[in-house]
Amino acid sequence: MRTAGHPGRPGRRVPVLLALAAVALIAADTVIPLDPLRAFGSAVYGGLEDAASSSVRWASGAGRLEDLERENTRLRAELLAARRATPPPAEGNGYQVVSAHAVGFGRDGTVTIDAGADAGVTPDMTVFDADGLVGRVLRTGPGTATVQLATASGASVGARLEGSREVGLVTGVPEHGLLRLGLLNPSADVKPGDRVVTLGSRDLRPFVPDVPIGTVVTVEPAADALTRTALVRPFARFTALENVTVVLGPLPDAPAVTDTSTKEPEKKSEKTNKSKKLKKKKKAKKKDTSRHAEGAR
Q1: C-beta neighbour count of 258 within 10 angstroms
Q2: For the Rod shape-determining protein MreC beta-barrel core domain, which residue ranges apply (predicted)?
Q3: pLDDT tens-digit readout, 76-112
Q4: Which of 142, 138, 96, 139 is nearest to 117 (CA)?
């Protein structure tokens, strides 16, 4: 008979059995090596995992998505090139670009993108998206780059009004997510709704020309006769950046190809035809003179 103060013996046997099982497994691992079994399991599991991952990527259309992103990047570059008032030096057909994704946001008005030096990205390159100017590359690593947003407190961008082409400077107003445009001409005609674009830099760095920046929302009262400022709402949504484009530089000029293989034979054939005609004319003249001579006899 069991007393109320002592538990049953089967409850005490469980820890003992677990300890014996652990000792048996340790002994089996010592006598019979289990590494081949572990390697086999890892290989089988790893292969299944890769196959499953590939199937998921294929089913989700990852390859198709990458193709669409590249096509969007190309179209954005062509649109940007078409908006330029004058082509930059040494090229007129577009830009060399690379697409990237925004992968991190900093509190200092920066964003990290997943394209770096390995993709040809270097500091002071223009970055824009489908809406407009994003900023410029601040620094790069092998696979990432830090971009200073146009709205950052220390950012400044040469700009002009798209319509009147009046020149000025755009600086960030980060507390409001806006930009401030200061025009060089204090008498410049500026009003809400005017579009602002980049002025462009020497050698296209840090900014290429005529990238859309934003729209004037408010013309500020002139503090003196030497200033003319306005607040600009940027086109780019800096808090919701996804796909961006980095301008690497101008497209190289295509070498002019002159095909002379067909022109030379044509010239030679023309010369031979002319010489043949002259010979025929000479023969005809000789015949005529000989006939006249016979008639005279």
Answers
A1: 7
A2: 109-247
A3: 555 555 544 333 333 334 799 999 999 999 988 999 9
A4: 142
Tens-digit pLDDT profile for residues 141-160: 999 999 999 999 889 999 99
Read off φ and ψ for residue 52, nearest 5 degrees. -65, -40
Cβ neighbours, 10 Å, residue 13: 10
Quick one: CA torsion of 234, 176, 184, 132, rounded to 10 degrees? -10
Q: For the chain, what's the residue count?
A: 297
Question: What are 229-254's pLDDT values in tens digits?
Answer: 999 999 999 989 999 999 999 887 63
Q: What pTM did the predictor assign?
A: 0.57
Is there a contact between 158 and 207 (Cβ–Cβ < 8 Å)? yes
Phi first, then psi: give them for residue 282, nearest 5 degrees: -60, -45
